[in-house]
Design a protein that fits this description.
6 helices; 4-stranded antiparallel sheet; alpha+beta; globular; 30% strand
Length: 257
Amino acid sequence: MALSSRAHAFSVEALVGRSAKRKVPDGRDEESGAGCRQSRRAPEAEKRPKAGAESREAGAGVQVELQGSELWRRFHEIGTEMIITKAGRRMFPSVRVKVKGLEPLKQYYIAIDVVPVDSKRYRYVYHSSQWMVAGNTDHSCITPRLYIHPDSPCSGETWMRQIISFDRVKLTNNEMDDKGHIILQSMHKYKPRVHVIAQDSRFDLAQIQSLPAEGVQTFSFQETEFTTVTAYQNQQITKLKIDRNPFAKGFRDPGRN
């Protein structure tokens, strides 16, 4: 028997009303209408990171944003490789950052070091175009060197006004290096770390090569991890370096001998 229009409307309303309620953690029923969905999404939108720069925070309100993060990500997707030589080779991409949240009048050192990602040694498998673990290694024989930015120490106000570039950092495989280059082993994975160090009258950072025990905030970015090589293994990395490195202009000239 067909329902009257009033009975039909009542039955539909009852069904819709029943399906539009759901349990929330404290056991109460909650309406899941459009207004509720919008109010629940608002906090997610506020947490969405800004485009074009990655940021890491290490407490005390200090933030470090990686500049050129898009290029770093392009290399990271392929598997970044960095050349190391006895004389020392500059990194490309180089680590460039902006710092926020420093005390304007306080003096800071900004420094960088490069540490192992793991205790593995790697090899490149050409037929599958990927890096594979070749064995274990011991990094204890090499103490990570600290490269202090040449503008250090400087006020927080000055640091926050500029892009801090570590483009002068050089990587070497010479364990006897006396030029201050960062010593690494070939065919290993590493990551750079940026350190914000509050000046302390008890020590002079310019005279030491290791991090102090206090007043240090450390930042790292996953996309800056790389594998050390003495010659590029992945042809895609070679091409991307030539295309994007301004110092590789000679390799791009069609008339080059």
